[in-house]
Every structure is written in C-alpha cells, then in structure tokens.
Design a protein that fits this description.
61% of the residues lie in helices and 8% in strands. It is an alpha/beta fold. It folds into two domains: 369 residues, no CATH class; 100 residues, 2-Layer Sandwich (Transcription Regulator spoIIAA). A five-stranded mixed sheet has the order 3-4-5-6-7, covered by helices on one side. Strands 1-2 form a two-stranded antiparallel sheet. Strand 5, helix 20 and strand 6 form a beta-alpha-beta unit. The longest helix is centred in the middle third of the chain and has 28 residues. The radius of gyration is 30 Å and the shape is elongated.
Length: 554
C-alpha cells in the first residue's frame, strides 16, 4: 500500500513525521481552545462561535491554504471589528458582513492581489496592531472584573482607573473583587509559566495552565462569579443567513471591505512571519488569501466569528515540531471532538480567566517597544504610528488604518519632492561646496538651477550627492549641461557620489545635443574621455548586473 504513495508521502510515513504532527496538533488545540472562547466573548458573541470557527479553519481551510504551517481561526485583532459591527447592526447582520468579506478575499486571491498586502508601511501595521491591543486590553479589563465593556475604546480606557478606584475603595467583598482576583491569578500563572527555562515544560501552553488553575480554584472554593455560558448543543449557535436582501446594503458592504482588508493583512503578515520561522515550505499568498475567503464565507453563512491566519497558534505549531499541514487539520478535529463529547467541561471555566488571557494578549499586542525600532528609521514613521494608533482608539479600526495609509502616501510624496540645498564657499573663494540632501527630481529643477547659477565662474564646484536618497535623469542632465558651460569659464566640477555611485555610474555623460546612436556614443566617450574629476565616485566603466524575478515556488 505504501509503495503506491508518492515519494513525499512515503518519506512522511517512513520517518514517522505523522507522530510529530499528532503531537503538534494537540499542543495547538490546547492553545486555541481558551483563546477561541475568550475572543468570542470579547467580540460579543457566544463562546461556541469561536470554537466553530476553529473547526472550519482546521478541517476546511487548512487542507487548501497556501501556508501549510499556518493555523487559521478567530483572531483577537478582528474581535474589535466584530464588536463594533455587532453594536451598529445587530447580531443578524454580522454574518452578512463576514460573508461579504469572504467573497472579497476570494476575488482578491483570484486576481492575485495577495502580494499587495505586504506593501504597507511598518508604521501603519504596527500602529494597527498596537491600537487593536489597546482596545482589547481596555475592553477585557472590565470583563475580567465581571463587568461589561463600555460603548467605545476611549470610554473603556477612561473607565479603567474608575473601576480600579471603586474596587479598591469598596470594603465589602463582592463578585468584582473575586473575579479580579481570578483574573490576576490567571495572568500571574501565565507569567510564571513562561519564565520557566525548561523547553519541554513549555510544550504545555501557559494559557491552558492559567485557565486550568483558575477553574480549579473557582470550583474548589465555589466562587460566585460568571462562568462560560454554553448551550446544551453547541451547534445551536449556528444561525444560517436569512436576510439576503441586505447583501447590497452600502453600510454592510463598507464594513465587509474593512473586515476583508484587515483580515487579509493580518493573515498575510502572519504567513510572512511563519516563512521566517521555518524553511520547509514557502507561502503562496494568493492561494492563502483565496482559502481564507472560502473559510470566512462559510463562517459568515453560519453566523459565527471570522477567521485569519493566527501567528500565535502558527508559531506554537512550528515550535511543537509540525512537519506538514496535517497538524493544523487534526487540531480542528480535536476541537470538534470536544464540542460534541465534553461540552460540560467548558461550562466550568470562569469568564474572568478567559478575559485575563485577552488582557495579557492585548498588552503583548500593543508592543510599544517597536517605537525604538521605528525611531531608528525615521521620526515621521513614529508620528504615523502614534496617529494610526490614536485614531483607531478614538474612532474605529478602518478609519485609523486608512488614516495611516494616507499619511504614509503623503510622507512618500514629501520624501520624493523634498530637496535640501546648502552652498558653502571655500576660504580661498576659489571653490564652492554644494550639499544635496533628500530627493533630486524634476520637481526641484528650478531650485537646483538657481543654486548652480549662483556659483562664481572660474571656480571649482564640489557637489556632494552622498546624502541623496534618489536622483532622477533630469537632475543629472542639468548638472552635466551646467558643467559644460562652467568649463568654458575655466571652472571645474567634482562629484561625491556616495552610495548613489553604483546606481548612476552609467548616467554621467556629455549632455545630448543631437541624437547619437549608442555605438557611436561609446566611440565618442572612448576617444574624448572625461575631463571631470571624480572624488570617491564610480569609475566610468559600464557594469551590467543580471537579475531575475524569483517567483513563488510551486
């Protein structure tokens, strides 16, 4: 029987890789279980909705996705969007928005737009993730105290110190104090478990240990706090769509576009991170996007949570030794088995413990340490990061992301249109240094021409290009044309090319006065040579570098 299999499958069974996939699937299942229910609660949906999304992600999306080691399921980042949609349109419209998002993802995957989601400024991406982290932290902090989230992100943030003050000043012990204790206990267990240096111990997820500990304490002392509310039949949460007439509603379409963009960006960024963690398989971005669209279309039709590729579960999958996509497929089977056979176990979990997981997740997602990295690149990137973050918290996720994208485009336009020109006269009045910084493009030709014309005749001009990010053909042509005129007055030109030398070594030539065939032009350069001195610049020899596009491995 094994002889009839493909060479890859024969190797898979011969080396017993299926045992590693089996172990990895159990670890991923243990990570996904508490987080899926916590994300459901954070989204305002029944806990079972997240579990069903995990089942769809494992059993339907994993066999066809473009990133074999990526695990799909409900993501904390989308809980903010789902909660907003739920507040605006009601539970019956959430499924329609998710269905629209799924259709859009399939269309984008079919049109091969997957790679475009990688062309987003790191400041916007990190601002989006930090904004989501702040919103999750703020909303779930109240749930951790057995309270309900406030209406908006700002109200949730403002409500945190007020909730702490009420909790600390109220001398009578109530459910808020007890739930807060369970939440703090859960976070403490996570921190202590992750601090253990033994790798084999860490195969047991810290989130699972925290939830188990909180559940045991709650059961032993019979604590009067809220528990996970699950129906007798967990599949009862599936509510197939009925309001098909609302499919073309403008507001729902806009929400669907926003959900599709954020879910796709999160999925493909996660897939990129997964590729960096392992070398066995590379992501096919368009296929991954199409598979996510299928999964979200199914989830939307059933009225459960949307899904993305989740970096936390995917990294755990790789670290646990997964060798193929079978590990993520089997993890969906484990969740299905639990939902069918042991729903009573899930009802014993305190809501405060799940909320504590999300509080910790939100804190980690905010990751303000990234500001130091952005600051090394550019101060404008830091400004875009904080504006994106603040807009998300103050308004909504889509508005914040669009604001960040617009600011990034404006920054790009500024960078490619901004040129600083500084002229310094030498002490002997016989030389001038011209420092160019930024981007020398045709938009700045008038200012460049004015600076060149101000150079006294019969002097040496030293042009410093080493601080330029970009110089276009028009600017080079102007400098070369000015050089001819300056030589006639007895002057000379020296150019410091810096890092631009390798890029523009073949551009520096005599300005065209008439059309000269390339072969004849080479003869002219060979016979006449160049009278201009080059300081640390490129040699006037032509170098050809062959490069090709590396496509995605099939």
């Amino acid at each position: 029987m094994i002889e009839k299999l493909s060479p890859q499958m024969r190797r898979y069974f011969a080396h017993r890789f299926y045992l590693k996939d089996l172990l990895a699937s159990i670890v991923v299942f243990l990570v996904a279980l508490p987080l899926a229910m916590g994300i459901s609660i954070a989204s305002g949906m029944p806990p079972a909705a997240g579990l069903i999304t995990c089942i769809v992600g494992g059993l339907i999306v994993s066999p066809i996705n473009g990133s074999p080691f990526q695990v799909s399921g409900p993501a904390a980042g989308l809980s903010v969007i789902v909660y907003e949609i739920l507040q605006q349109h009601g539970a019956e419209k959430v499924g329609m928005v998710i269905l629209i998002a799924g259709f859009l993802q399939m269309i984008m995957g079919y049109l091969k737009l997957g790679q475009w989601f990688r062309a987003v400024s790191p400041a916007v991406v990190n601002g989006m993730l930090s904004g989501i982290g702040v919103l999750i932290f703020a909303s779930q902090f109240h749930v951790m105290l057995d309270d309900a989230p406030r209406g908006t992100g700002l109200l949730n943030l403002v409500g945190i110190p007020l909730a702490l003050y009420d909790c600390l000043t109220d001398t009578k012990v109530n459910s808020t104090h007890i739930a807060g204790f369970v939440g703090v206990l859960s976070i403490s267990v996570i921190l202590m478990w992750e601090a253990i240096p033994v790798k084999k111990v860490k195969l047991i997820p810290s989130a699972l240990v925290a939830v188990f500990t909180a559940t045991m304490v709650t059961m032993y002392f019979n604590l009067p706090i809220k528990h996970v509310d699950l129906p007798a039949n967990l599949f009862a949460v599936i509510q197939p769509l009925q309001h098909w007439s609302k499919f073309l509603d403008v507001e729902l379409l806009l929400d669907g576009v926003g959900l599709a963009l954020v879910a796709s960006a999160e999925t493909l960024l996660s897939a990129t991170a997964v590729d960096r963690m392992q070398t066995r398989a590379r992501t096919k971005y368009d296929r991954e996007l199409f598979a996510q669209g299928i999964g979200n279309s199914i989830c939307g039709f059933m009225g459960v949570l949307p899904m993305t590729g989740v970096i936390v579960r995917s990294s755990v999958n790789i670290q646990a030794g997964a060798r193929s996509r079978m590990s993520s497929i089997i993890h969906g089977f484990w969740i299905l088995l639990l939902v069918i056979s042991f729903p009573t176990l899930l009802r014993a979990i305190p809501t405060a413990a799940l909320a504590a997981l999300l509080v910790y997740t939100g804190y980690k997602l905010a990751n303000f340490k990234i500001v130091k990295e952005l600051l090394k690149a550019d101060k404008l990137e830091v400004a875009i990061y904080f504006i994106t973050l603040g807009t998300i918290v103050a308004t909504d996720l889509l508005t914040g992301v669009l604001t960040g994208v617009v600011l990034s485009v404006l920054k790009l336009l500024y960078m490619f249109s901004h040129l600083e020109i500084r002229s310094v006269m030498g002490p002997d009045q016989a030389s001038t240094a011209l420092y160019l910084r930024g981007a020398a493009t045709f938009l700045n030709l008038p200012r460049l021409a004015e600076a060149l014309e101000a150079v006294p005749p019969n002097t040496e001009l030293h042009v410093h290009l080493e601080e330029l990010d970009y110089v276009d053909h028009a600017s080079l042509e102007m400098i070369m044309a000015w050089e001819v005129q300056h030589k006639a007055t007895g002057g000379s030109l020296v150019i410091d090319w810096g890092t631009l030398g390798s890029m523009f070594r073949d551009r520096r030539r005599t300005p065209r006065q008439e059309s000269v065939p390339s072969a004849a032009a080479e003869e002219v350069h060979a016979s006449e040579g160049s009278q201009t001195e080059l300081a640390d610049g490129p040699k006037l020899t032509e170098t050809t570098t062959a490069s090709g596009n590396q496509g995605e491995p099939e």
